[in-house]
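User: Structure please.
Assistant: Input sequence and predicted structure:
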Amino acid sequence: MQQSGRPPRCAVDARQRQLALSPDGQTMAMVMRPDTAAPQSLYTRRVNNVVFQKLGGTEDASQPFFSPDGRYVAFVANNVAHGGGIYQTYAVSRDGQRILNIQYAGDGTAAGRAGALSHAA
C-alpha cells in the first residue's frame, strides 16, 4: 500500500457493497485490491486521514460491516485461509489483532465471541 499521503490506486468491485462506516462515523472499512496480482482484502482508515491500513487475515473479504460498538469489522469470505468451501462470516478487531469466526443467522444478524452484530443485506 502506498504511504506517500496520496490515496492508493486500487480496484474496487462496484457490484458489491464494499464500504462501511463505523457507528461513531470516524472510521471507514473498505474492501479493495491494491493491485491485480493481490487478493482483495479489508482496509481501514480514519475519515480525517488518507492512509489505509490493511487488516491481516482478511483476504477475499467482501460486504464489510461494523459491530454496534465499533470495536470489530465483520466481513464475509470464502478462501483457504479461513477454511474455504463455503462463505463464512468473520469479525476482525479494528487494530487487526483478533479475528473471529462468527455464525451468520441468515436474518441479517450474526453472533460470536465479538457479541451480536447487525447487518442489513
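Residues 12 and 32 are 5 Å apart (CA to CA).
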